[in-house]
Amino acid sequence: MTSTPEQPTDGELLTAVLAGQREKFAEIVQRYQSPLLRLAMSRLGRQQEAEDAVQQTFLNAFRWLDTYDSRYSFRTWLWTILINNCNRLHQKSARRAETEVGDSPVIQFQADDAAAEPLAAMITAERHEHVRRLLTELTPSQAEAVRLRFFGQMKFQEIADSLGCTLPAAKARVRKGMIRLTELLTAGTLSAGRVGDHFDD
């Protein structure tokens, strides 16, 4: 992120916080709250649980800030904390009956996702809760990669770093997840091979 007088970089904000300007962390919260909430909603499906996960993520990040390695992306580090918090909350509520969520965030697609183009209209036309349920039909590794790509707006390298896998593995998980999601959304009316053929970074 380019630094401007109005919008300092993540690194500048973190340096200020670590130097004692703790109020600067509020700018980090403001910058990342919405995308984190969108990702948490895609994983948990309940507004309150998603908000709890995001709040805990910021608390953890603030508490562990001195352990952050600035050689790596702060956003990836933050997303990894959120994923862990979501997984813990999901395990705690695994036996609860799922309920419909009123306010659903819009699914956004990266412009460079060729696979997203034939799916964007279909997925954005579906209720968010329905798409979230379909994601449970994917393998856990595929579902997590798809969430990070399309809800978290992460690049493939960031996904790889966050999930602790190689770059080719991250791409493969998203690709296979998108193919399966296509099959589920279209009930077999769109060839999975078509999506696979056009998937490129």
Search tags:
2 domains, disordered C terminus, Arc Repressor Mutant, subunit A, RNA_pol_sigma-70_dom, DNA binding, RNA_pol_sigma_r2, mainly alpha, 10 helices, globular, about 200 residues, sigma factor, transcription, Rna Polymerase Sigma Factor, Chain: A
In short:
This protein is mainly α. It has helices at residues 10-18, 25-44, 47-63, 74-92, 117-125, 128-135, 140-151, 156-163, 167-186, 192-198. The protein has two domains: 10-92, RNA polymerase sigma factor, region 2, helix turn helix motif (Rna Polymerase Sigma Factor, Chain: A), CATH 1.10.1740; 117-198, Arc Repressor Mutant, subunit A, CATH 1.10.10.
Describe the SSE topology.
Elements: H1 10-18, H2 25-44, H3 47-63, H4 74-92, H5 117-125, H6 128-135, H7 140-151, H8 156-163, H9 167-186, H10 192-198
Helix pairs in contact: 2-3, 2-4, 2-7, 3-4, 4-8, 7-9, 8-9, 9-10
Fold and architecture overview:
Belongs to the sigma-70 factor family. ECF subfamily. GO terms for molecular function: DNA binding; sigma factor activity. Keywords: Sigma factor, Transcription, Transcription regulation. The chain is an all-alpha fold and 201 residues long. It has 2 domains: 10-92, RNA polymerase sigma factor, region 2, helix turn helix motif (Rna Polymerase Sigma Factor, Chain: A), CATH 1.10.1740; 117-198, Winged helix-like DNA-binding domain superfamily/Winged helix DNA-binding domain (Arc Repressor Mutant, subunit A, Orthogonal Bundle). It is 64% helix and 0% strand. The protein contains 10 helices and no strands. Helix 3 (47-63) packs across helix 4 (74-92). The radius of gyration is 18 Å and the shape is globular. The protein starts with 9 loop residues before the first helix and ends with a helix.
